[in-house]
Specification:
The chain is an alpha+beta fold. Helix content is 56%, strand content 19%.
């Protein structure tokens, strides 16, 4: 059927509205523009309204503001405080005493030297002690007493007495070594675990932020592909209606085009909502929202397309050595082990070695004593310094040593604690084993994903090219009456799907690379 002359301008206008991809007849040689994965959607993406955001900005803000990193930082501060407290248990301690008092008593013996005996005493002491890593308590003390009395029989008045000693109480069973240092060692291991947990949290939030960023990148391009499909559906409906006007189509083709356009418009709304949802997720990670009026974040960084994949066993070995989360678990198990060793020593009977060495000194002002008609003369003169010199030189030495044994009638309490600690260690070791297996599994999966990334991208690009060619040929066949509107609608839907798969392949590769960087850090962890 030959169209009437009056309908030719209408048909030509319709073909112009539909663009080069829909032209027929003599203009079919240049019918379909290239809708390559990198260029066809870029114009649509650049027209999306939103606040531009780079990948580095997203990761940095997520590290600063995320709940996970702040919680890990608080846990690290708590572990640092606990370690300081336990270290302080082995710091030397000083003690001192100074007192002055008096006493008055009626005489009960003629040898007291006064009817009412009055005395005044000034006492001072200075000591230092330290807990040894072996569990022993080492202490040193110096004591001095100065006394005055009204007794006529006091040969020294005032009189200064001094004594000094160095004492050791060393547990030989319960309380020995690991029992004393168990809490400190456990706190040190827990500090290392918290430090690695913090580093792991930072690495993890960076990886999550990067993966969410790429998810937003994919959502933008999925939205762009859908918008292209919607625009093509609208153009296709216009073309179908004009073709029906000139007698080259029927109502069923127009209805198919309307159904296709309605589906694409609904899908476009769905894609926009999905894009906004991912933008919200990224905003929650960063702790902020886009500026007023922008509505959403928009990506400005392109994912990589060339990936270097190392040997599988080499990656796994490096992950076992460097992964912060695994190292944190190892340090936590070590902390449990330190407490278990302490509990085993605490379950033993108490046997302590006790001993001390020291010296005594005495000085004062001598006075004459008249007794039974005889005068006793005391020429001693000196003060606290003289008494201390006698103590230091051990002019009048003192010493003692011995053993103290304490055995409970029942060992159930200590044995029960030891049994509980052993079971806790076994459970922690199994958790560590599970963490290693999970890490190895995740590393292999991420490496496998990255290994196939280039091939997947190549396949996805080929799919887009093939879909474009299908649409071009289908349009020509539709214009020639060889295809129905429904068949052409299916071809255009396949093109949108191919475009989306290409974007998803890009993001899938970038996500796998981010996961692998988190699982296998560049540097070995340092336990300070």
């Amino acid at each position: 059927m030959t169209p009437k002359k009056s309908t030719l301008p209408i048909l030509a206008a319709a073909l112009m509205l539909c663009g080069p991809a829909h032209r027929a007849g003599a203009a079919q040689a240049g019918s379909a523009p290239e809708l390559s994965p990198d260029s066809s959607m870029q114009a649509v993406v650049s027209g999306i309204q939103g606040a531009a955001l780079s990948l580095q900005e997203a990761m940095d803000e997520a590290v600063r503001n995320s709940v996970a990193t702040r919680s890990a930082s608080a846990a690290l501060d708590a572990a640092t405080g606990l370690a300081r407290r336990e270290r302080g248990g082995f710091d030397p301690t000083l003690s001192g005493l100074l007192s002055h008092g008096g006493n008055t008593l009626p005489s009960t013996s003629p040898f007291q030297g006064a009817d009412i005996l009055r005395t005044q005493t000034t006492t001072g002491s200075l000591g230092a002690g330290v807990l040894l890593p072996t569990g022993g308590q080492l202490s040193a003390s110096f004591n001095a007493t100065r006394s005055e009395t009204n007794s006529i029989f006091a040969t020294l008045n005032p009189q200064t007495n001094a004594s000094g000693s160095l004492s050791l109480v060393q547990p030989l069973l319960k309380g020995f070594g690991p029992a004393a240092t168990g809490s400190r060692s456990a706190a040190e291991f827990e500090l290392q675990a918290s430090r690695n947990s913090y580093e792991s949290a930072v690495s993890a939030i960076r990886a999550v932020a990067e993966q969410t960023y790429w998810a937003l990148y994919a959502a933008e391009r999925t939205y762009a592909a859908q918008r292209l499909a919607r625009d093509q559906a609208a153009a296709f409906l216009t073309q179908t209606g004009l073709r029906a006007t000139v007698g080259r189509g029927g109502p069923s083709q127009v209805a198919s085009a309307k159904v296709f356009l309605a589906e694409q418009e609904q899908s476009l709304l769905d894609r926009e909502e999905a894009m906004d949802a991912v933008s919200d997720q990224l905003g929650s990670l960063m702790g902020r929202r886009p500026a007023a009026g922008t509505g959403r974040f928009l990506t400005t960084t392109e994912p990589g397309r060339n990936f270097t994949v190392e040997d599988e066993d080499t990656l796994v070995a490096r992950a076992i050595r460097r992964n912060r989360s695994l190292r944190a678990t190892e340090r936590a198990v070590a902390a449990v082990g330190a407490r278990v060793r302490a509990s085993r020593w605490k379950a033993l009977p108490q046997l302590d070695f006790v001993g001390s060495i020291g010296g005594n000194g005495i000085s004062g002002t001598g006075q004459d004593i008249v007794f039974s008609g005889d005068t006793l003369h005391n020429a001693l003169r000196g003060g606290l310094g003289d008494a201390w010199s006698q103590v230091r030189q051990r002019q009048y030495p003192s010493w003692n040593y011995g053993l103290v044994l304490s055995v409970p009638l029942s060992l159930r309490r200590n044995d029960g604690e030891r049994q509980r600690a052993d079971a806790e260690l076994a459970q922690a070791e199994q958790g560590l084993r599970a963490a290693r297996l999970t890490l190895e599994e995740n590393v292999r999966a991420a490496r496998r994903e990255l290994l196939h990334a280039s091939e997947r991208l190549k396949s996805a690009r080929s799919g887009v090219d093939a879909a474009l060619e299908q649409v071009r040929i289908g349009q020509l066949e539709y214009n020639a009456g060889l295809k129905t509107a429904f068949e052409l609608v299916r071809l255009r839907a396949d093109l949108a799907t191919a475009q989306q798969r290409y974007s998803q392949a890009l993001v899938r590769a970038a996500t796998a690379e981010a996961a692998l960087r988190h699982l296998v850090p560049d540097n070995d962890p340092t336990d300070e």
